[in-house]
């Protein structure tokens, strides 16, 4: 089954936003062993959208379109789809009823546009917004049009589109499985050598095992993809390859699954029943925000203090002002005092801290932009590391946050080791 | 001049990374009044890449291809381009010399692939990597192939591709100008009515004014794009349209330029010499992280306390435990106490706070997932608003952060008004 995506919107063609909708669709389908053959991004022009849909329907069995269902006059995907199908747009009373129910007021002239759909098309419910989605069939190929607003698109795809795609999957298709392992602290060139041979481990000609890597901040995501005539075989091959990678890389693996380090750090603390606290400076809250994205983390995370000013470091974290004066706010000594300070004040089992120079200003010969000190602390002691990150301000912030989360993850694991030690 | 982009790579079709290269190209071209008509994303397959290049060359005068120039066997853009041109790949001694110079070692078998280019093509120097770029012409249309590694692509595009595109721009082309205004708190359908007529305000047939909107969390970005035979006229039309929108929307405008609310809040505080502090719960640090992304904000932002546990709210922010017991941690009363608490403890001029239920757990009939209370505080008093956000946990976090930044921005503006009041 060949699947294509068409993302519409001038904001994409102007580079104002990156196309996260298509990435979400690719991930969701990939997790079910379905790939996307092509993504086409076009502006808001009716003819351009129609041409893209027409061409995709000729090549593929499933075409997923996002965007252009809003209430304004530059939302023209409905019109473009009607052009492709060679039918007129019709007012749909059930769409009007759903929109009125949602808005709790009579329909405006603008929203009236959203009640229209090509004749003969099926409407798809929008649980979190006004615009209904549209499904139409042409020469045996299906086209699904969904809103461009990410959370509306995600809900509609998950509940109303994906089940239909899976139900329509042909019997003869090869199945595939995907596994991800997240690796930290191993350079990409060394990693390639350590992974050699795994990709050619498929025992039969009808089977395949491929290994890909992708760098994300200071982390590398290893992707194992397998193919086989049955889904169980594909899953088994993927599990075996993941086991082999785990045995080769050991402690450098943050975890399995396409998650960030924050997810693995939060999981490690939650699974071990540890409480956490964070003290941040140059990352401005990104360390805590990463942890808070993980549902249920309130059982572990007590607080994060974004102590941006020196006064806040002293007052909130008990950092000795003399330390800041002697070594500077960006120093190993202050990072250590921040981690220990937030751990003691909060009573958390483990804590991490980071202080650095995100740039573009504030650097010097001794302490250049990108320099950061990261610390982790528990009752067993405090570790501090010095790191240097390149890139612009947001990149330095993200890489420093990732390094801090890695220290927190290591600290959470270390606790487990020590606890076992005491048993014997 | 019609321009298209083709981005290649399995990692894009699998949704493992979002396509930031195409966004960069669109921004760079847009800043020079050039638009991108279409972006096509394909995997690493030679035939799929060739088909995409062939189709784009038939529609457009300039085709920009990124990715697939690496040293490994799944890098097949060179081969695909040769297929399209109907010529063979040839070894290019000047490419070999450049790669050896860069690597400072004899060529490996893998790097040897990077010395090949379609017969008759022009090589483009790569100042920061090994793979040279390629330029070829077919029926008067130009195709440029650049590496997929973002910093290599950016350098090559800026120095070797963009100047050629600009030099090849036909004389008759219209120039365009773009302006952005960021609006908060106005529903999209109401906004459309308020903007009516602006798009048709172009006084002459050779001129155009278009208005587009894009929703980003609780915020709408209004884009004014104008076209005219000369760049000054396009700029003037855009300025006039922006003035008109500003006069119609007044206080609902966060600012001008394609920035987030965090940027405008930080700028407002910095411009007025105000210090800020934040107390966050469900947003987990996103409010502060948004502010910290703005360079120079250390002159204004003192601290943010991510008081995730009740104990932290009491200990760090001085929230009365009785308030939490009577009203719950997610309540107007606690939001008020958090904002006042962090303002007093830090000594900041203005403060904002947020407490809410990000989900998926933790909701109830009285307090559903998505409920949040947002407060802002200054010596003039404290305001609290109740908000309800839909979407999944990360979406609720982002929308709650945006609402908090908006309260902070309003508070920063309000100070200015009051200060003027005292003068008279």
Largest contact between chains: A-B, 92 and 90 residues
Strand content of chain A: 15-25%
* Major sheet description of chain A: 6 strands, mixed
What would the principal axes of the Cα set say about the shape of chain A?
Answer: globular
Mean pLDDT of chain A comes to 90
Class from secondary-structure proportions of chain A: alpha/beta
How many E strands of chain A? Answer: 17
Helix content of chain A: 40-55%
- Helix tally of chain A equals 15
Contiguous low-pLDDT stretches of chain A (5 residues minimum) are: 417-424
Compute the separation of the termini of chain A in Å.
Answer: 56 Å
Question: What is the gyration radius of chain A calculated from CA atoms?
Answer: 26 Å
Please identify the oligomeric state.
homodimer
Instruction: Identify the strand order in the major beta sheet of chain A.
Output: 2-1-3-8-7-6
Please write out the topology:
2 copies of one chain form a homodimer.
Chain A: E1 3-8, H1 10-13, H2 20-30, E2 38-42, H3 46-59, E3 62-66, H4 77-85, E4 89-91, H5 93-103, H6 109-112, E5 116-118, E6 122-124, E7 133-138, E8 141-146, H7 150-167, E9 175-184, H8 188-194, E10 208-216, E11 219-228, H9 231-249, E12 253-256, H10 261-272, E13 276-280, H11 286-292, E14 301-307, H12 310-317, H13 321-327, H14 332-346, E15 350-356, E16 371-378, E17 381-388, H15 393-423
Parallel strand pairs in A: 1-2, 1-3, 3-8, 13-14, 13-15
Antiparallel strand pairs in A: 4-5, 6-7, 7-8, 9-11, 9-12, 10-11, 15-16, 16-17
Helix pairs in contact in A: 2-7, 3-4, 10-11, 10-15
């Amino acid at each position: 089954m060949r699947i294509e995506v068409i993302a519409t919107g001038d904001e994409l063609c102007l580079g104002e936003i990156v196309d996260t909708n298509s990435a979400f669709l690719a991930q969701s389908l990939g997790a079910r062993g379905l790939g996307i053959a092509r993504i086409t991004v076009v502006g808001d022009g009716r003819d351009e959208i129609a041409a893209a849909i027409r061409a995709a329907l000729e090549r593929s069995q499933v075409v997923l379109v996002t965007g252009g269902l809003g209430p304004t006059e530059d939302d023209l995907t409905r019109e473009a789809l009607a052009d492709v199908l060679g039918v007129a747009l019709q007012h749909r009373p059930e769409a009007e009823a759903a929109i009125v129910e949602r808005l709790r007021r009579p329909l405006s002239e603008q929203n009236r546009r959203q009640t229209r759909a090509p004749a003969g098309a099926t409407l798809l419910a929008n649980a979190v917004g006004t615009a209904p989605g549209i499904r139409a069939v042409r020469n045996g190929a299906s086209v699904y049009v969904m809103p461009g607003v990410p959370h509306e698109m995600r809900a509609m795809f998950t509940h109303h589109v994906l089940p239909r795609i899976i139900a329509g999957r042909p019997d003869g298709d090869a199945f595939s499985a995907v596994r991800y392992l997240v690796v930290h602290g191993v350079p990409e060139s060394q990693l390639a050598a350590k992974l050699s041979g795994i990709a050619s481990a498929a025992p039969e000609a009808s089977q395949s095992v491929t290994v890909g890597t992708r760098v994300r901040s200071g982390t590398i995501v290893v992707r194992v993809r397998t193919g086989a005539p049955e889904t169980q075989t594909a899953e088994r091959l993927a599990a075996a390859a993941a086991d082999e990678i785990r045995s080769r890389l050991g402690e450098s693996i943050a975890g399995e699954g396409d998650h960030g380090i924050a997810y693995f750090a939060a999981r490690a603390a939650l699974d071990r029943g540890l409480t956490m606290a964070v003290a941040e400076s140059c990352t401005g809250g990104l360390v805590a925000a990463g942890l808070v994205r993980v549902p249920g983390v309130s059982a572990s995370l007590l607080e994060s203090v974004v102590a941006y000013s020196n006064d806040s470091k002293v007052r909130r974290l008990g950092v000795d002002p003399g330390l800041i004066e002697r070594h500077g706010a960006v120093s190993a000594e202050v990072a250590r005092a921040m981690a220990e300070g937030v751990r003691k004040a909060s009573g958390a089992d483990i804590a991490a801290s980071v202080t650095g120079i995100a740039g573009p200003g504030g650097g010097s010969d001794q302490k250049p932009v990108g320099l950061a000190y990261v610390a982790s602390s528990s009752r067993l002691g405090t570790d501090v590391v010095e790191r240097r990150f390149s890139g612009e301000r947001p990149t330095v912030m993200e890489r420093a946050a990732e390094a801090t989360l890695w220290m927190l993850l290591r600290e959470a694991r270390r606790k487990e080791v020590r606890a076992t030690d005491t048993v014997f």
